[in-house]
Amino acid sequence: MTEAARAVTGERAGRRGRSGGGAARRAERTAVSVETARFITRNIPDFEVLDEAAIAVIEHNAETVLEEIGVVFSDNPDALERWRQAGARVDGDRVRIPRGLARQLCATAPASFTQHARNPERSVEIGGRNLVLAPVYGPPFVRDAQGGRRYATIEDFRNFVKLGYMSKWLHHSGGTVCEPTDIAVNKRHLDMLLAHMTLSDKPFMGSVTAPERAQDSVEMCEILFGREFVAENTVMTSLININSPLTFDGIMMGALEVYARANQACIISPFIVGGAMAPVSVAGTLTQVLAEALAGVAYSQIVRPGAPVIVGTFVTSIDMNSGAPTFGTPEASLITYGMGQLTRRLGLPYRSAGGFCGSKLPDAQAGYESANSLNMGLMSGVNFMLHACGWLEGGLVASYEKFVMDADQLGALHQVAKGVDTSEDMQALDAIREVGPGGHYLGCAHTQANFKTAFWRSDLLDYKPFETWEEEGARDTQTLASARVARLLDTYRQPPLDPEIAQRLTAYVEAKKAAIADSFS
């Protein structure tokens, strides 16, 4: 922590952020109860598309890429020196990694880790059979049914954080749920982090747009959780994109270095548009993605052995007529399934999939494409799913209506992931005996005992008879979603936070913003 930051925040070694204080306890007693489902633990098998021969070919080819072609670490002489000392061959900014070295370095990364939330009940376990769902990340625009498409503001950002907090099936508050373009680029990360820390008590992501912004994220977490707690625990999971093909830029790697040294988790994620940033073939793309992931994870372990990481795969194909990215396609599914297998062989957590679509509106195209992408994520063994709700127009837009539409559908993923319960009660032989041939189960004892929990039920979609639906205004799903957005925001209540911590966070943000001039580039 810098001396200036200490002057603003004071020292707080060993003290965990909490909801304590009389005012906070009074607020807690009067707060609206917000239910959040536990992160998903799959009781269903992963879907695998690669046989052992295919896996062997792709792994061999990925090592060949690292050894013969290499990767670029641009604008980062320290990284080049670290690689040289680790045993790689460095020529200019090109790093060639001997066969087996990257995989050997990756071995120190943990197979799973806990990301702590300020409310311990919301903490998540990332890895293994678990799936953590987080909202859309990065859109500069927002859309709602009333105002249409427009640039995002900090007020939009705060609204999305509130919606994420109120959403039962979301486990994570995410990161840049939209870009608040009304705040300077070099300062907006402070306001975004403050919103996540104060308007929600779910886990969140840090800033990666510059190393010093990553450091600000760590320092704000030290205020929220306590310095000693942050030093010993993971409280942030942040997104480090690789500039595919095979390029690691100094800004992203600088942020990774900050987080790795602080024992904070990074999602190391190739950013693939097939045919533009990777080969058009599934096997070729898997080879490149695996090579990039191996190099990125290995570098994080050079910086700090044991630093928590997630292997990321963001992949889409391209429309060869228009050049626009496409989503929910068969090829993207095959790559996501395949990379799940390759990542599990590394013994590391996996990030991929989301509510992806290319549609401009929350319409049928958005529904089809998003359903394909969400189910692909569940079945491929993803452990951390960014963009699980709110994504529209190829990620350019965060949609209010689609946010709640997607968040509602995430409940179906929870239900499918439970698998088939074959306990004695669920075998239902007594019910079959009771009803017998030609009867019905509506009134039998088994139905009466289980009807409240037997089936997943949407909180949004309309299942009423036609006549009732028509009498109520013949509302389509977008109209129902608009009403749900308004209802959630109207009933939102801020989760309790120690007033001293809240004041210190606000003071930190104000001091940091006052110390630098605005920059919008």
Write out key terms for the chains shown.
alpha/beta; five-stranded mixed β-sheet; disordered N terminus
Protein architecture, described:
It is a single chain. By secondary structure, the chain is α/β, with parallel strands linked by helices. 46% of the residues lie in helices and 13% in strands. The chain is built from 20 helices and 18 strands. The protein has helices at 3-9, 22-30, 52-69, 77-86, 101-106, 154-166, 188-199, 211-225, 227-232, 250-261, 282-303, 330-346, 364-379, 400-417, 424-427, 429-435, 445-454, 466-471, 477-491, 499-515, and strands at 40-41, 71-73, 89-91, 94-96, 112-115, 124-127, 130-133, 141-144, 148-151, 237-242, 247-248, 265-273, 309-318, 325-326, 350-352, 384-385, 391-392, 397-399. The strands form five sheets. Strands 10, 12, 13, 14 and 15 form a five-stranded mixed sheet that branches. A four-stranded mixed sheet has the order 3-4-2-11. A four-stranded mixed sheet has the order 9-8-18-17. The longest helix has 22 residues, at 282-303. The two termini are 26 Å apart.
Topology:
Layout: H1 3-9, H2 22-30, E1 40-41, H3 52-69, E2 71-73, H4 77-86, E3 89-91, E4 94-96, H5 101-106, E5 112-115, E6 124-127, E7 130-133, E8 141-144, E9 148-151, H6 154-166, H7 188-199, H8 211-225, H9 227-232, E10 237-242, E11 247-248, H10 250-261, E12 265-273, H11 282-303, E13 309-318, E14 325-326, H12 330-346, E15 350-352, H13 364-379, E16 384-385, E17 391-392, E18 397-399, H14 400-417, H15 424-427, H16 429-435, H17 445-454, H18 466-471, H19 477-491, H20 499-515
Parallel strand pairs: 2-11, 7-16, 8-18, 10-12, 12-13, 13-15
Antiparallel strand pairs: 1-7, 2-4, 3-4, 5-6, 8-9, 13-14, 17-18
